[in-house]
Amino acid sequence: MDRISDGTAVAPTERQDGRDVRELEASLQQFGEFLLKAQLVKEKAAPYCVRWVRRFLARPASNGPVADQVRRFCEDLERDGACQDWQVRQAEHALRLYFVNFLDRADWHHRPQTAGVDERGRTNPLAALEELRLRLRTRHYSYRTECSYADWVRRFLAYVAERRQAPHPRVDSAVVRDYLTYLAVRQQVSASTQNQALCAVLFLCREVLGLDVDDLSLTARAKRGAHLPVVLSVPETAALLGAMRGTTWLMAALIYGGGLRVSECCQLRVKDIDFDQGLLVVRSGKGDKDRTTLLANMCRDPLRAQLHAAEAIHRRDRESGLPGVWLPDALDRKYPQAGRDLAWFWIFPSRTLSTDPRAGIVRRHHISDSVVQKAVKAAARQAKIHKPVSVHTLRHCFATHLLLNGVDIRQIQEYMGHANVETTMVYTHVVEELRNPPRSPLDILASGGR
């Protein structure tokens, strides 16, 4: 708990500062809204963080630094036996967010600073994360990239704060190298994961903190080896899809039949289906590019049934007066009613409502990709396929099986949405082994040289 306080702060209970219960509850409500706005915890975890802080502040008053009080509070939770280890960690994390991030933010905003750095070069994690999101959105990075970068920056700043024993540490090239070494040696992450963390930290240093870290862009980048994708045979693919049912089967079939990414399948809208031409239109795919791909005949009737189910949900949402679905860019301002139009509605809508993380509006979002991910994993176990199968494996199977059927690789490149044909060429290595596999010399020896 060394990051909570240096001993000068005190817990703002009613006994210490004279505030009544109503004012304290208002402060806790602001803390909950702050957690959601800053995206420091998941939406479902925010109420639990507020409860832990309320429980801490309801304790009898005690003397000493807040860090010692929190430590004793967590020790009492462990001795009590009613809380599991993850609950104790959640309580400790909630109190750290309350005292370090929430209570300290007002004092920080009164200090002279630029983009999360004060006049002494110290970095405020919360201010840096807010500025990071603004810079990413200004450059039109995708929301997934924004979440990934923010998560890596949060981990990096927590590492630096723990290493230098300060809630607002200095960031320089040396500590960036230390963190990358920590990931590679201690955490044993892959080269691609290390490079992703490097890109996030470099963006923080260059665009947010204004640091000169050009010497890190080349020297700290990990070398990636050549890896072949996991591909199922045609019988294995049939067994996998045969073990699935309902909506998840349809989503997996669309992914395999059109080479979609899982996010592209989840984000399909009613207007993106062209039954007459037998095409799926992928909007704002990877790299913010549009493309068309194949709609399998086998998926037509189940897809029409899914459209009827989505239309029923859309009708109930309109009768309930819910806001329209999320629209890209500024379309919601150009066409205010477009989000309520059936054409823009999700083909695979979520059963529950959720809060838009950027707009803060409660609305209907599309189904989570974790739903189909779990369904594919369960189907692979049921079909007894002993390979590391994921949803993305079906995309690899789409390209490989098309190559086996003699489809031109340039056409496959367009279906896959690859910017460079060299990316698609990786499937040719898999096809060569599947199409004409050579005889093993052991088999030749066993057959007497024949």
Topology summary:
Blueprint: H1 14-17, H2 21-38, H3 46-57, H4 66-80, H5 85-109, E1 113-114, E2 117-118, H6 125-138, H7 143-164, H8 173-186, H9 191-208, H10 216-219, H11 234-242, H12 246-258, H13 262-266, E3 273-274, E4 279-282, E5 291-294, H14 300-320, H15 331-334, E6 349-355, E7 362-366, H16 369-382, H17 391-404, H18 409-416, H19 421-424, H20 426-435, H21 441-446
Antiparallel strand pairs: 1-2, 3-4, 4-5, 6-7
Number of helices: 21
Report the sheet-strand fraction.
5-15%
Q: What's the CATH first level of the largest domain?
A: Mainly Alpha
Q: What name goes with the CATH superfamily of the largest domain? A: Intergrase catalytic core
Beta strands, count: 7
Supply the number of structural domains.
Answer: 3
> Distance between termini?
73 Å
CATH topology of the largest domain: hpI Integrase, Chain A
Name the helicity range.
Answer: 55-70%
Average per-residue pLDDT, rounded, comes to: 82
Detailed description of the structure:
There is one protein chain. The protein has three domains: 1-110, Orthogonal Bundle (DNA polymerase, domain 1), CATH 1.10.150; 111-225, DNA polymerase, domain 1 (Orthogonal Bundle); 234-431, Intergrase catalytic core (hpI Integrase, Chain A, Orthogonal Bundle). It is globular, with a radius of gyration of 27 Å. The protein is built from 21 helices and seven strands. It has helices at residues 14-17, 21-38, 46-57, 66-80, 85-109, 125-138, 143-164, 173-186, 191-208, 216-219, 234-242, 246-258, 262-266, 300-320, 331-334, 369-382, 391-404, 409-416, 421-424, 426-435, 441-446, and strands spanning 113-114, 117-118, 273-274, 279-282, 291-294, 349-355, 362-366. The termini are far apart. Helix 3 crosses helix 5 (85-109). The strands form three sheets. A three-stranded antiparallel sheet has the order 3-4-5. A two-stranded antiparallel ribbon has the order 1-2. A two-stranded antiparallel sheet has the order 6-7. The protein is mainly alpha-helical and 450 residues long.
